[in-house]
Amino acid sequence: MLNAFTLWIRMMDATLEMSRTGQRVSETLGASHDVIDARSGMIRTALASPLEADHVELARMVPEKIAAFSQAGTAIATQWWAIQADLLTQAHQLGTMALKGRPPTASELKAMTARNIAHGTRAIERSVALGAGAVKPVHARATSNARRLKRAKKR
Fold it and tell me: pTM for this structure?
């Protein structure tokens, strides 16, 4: 059974991870603005004069998005299935208790309460991990591109 201190620590960790995810979203939005701005100019140049285009940069655009969003989708699916499996386990345990044909004993109620608290805690942690996992690869790619394009612009 989770003690109150452990539960509090786990909830604080989840809260901090949500905060970090929010920060990553904000950074991703800023970096995306910079990347779109830089690449729009490259696309205009390529349309006006294909021989002067930065074909290396243009060739990165689609594959990097596919890779980042594939990683994000994998992270989402992994956590989603973990949440669903835990939910089914919880439903099975509650159903088993309900089908006993008698009220639960004090020890069964205590065990059920411990499982419910643990289930709720895992659901929160996995939901937070789902969001964080979805944002991390997109954030990494967008901020990396923004830094690289900013360095290239200075040259």
Answer: 0.83
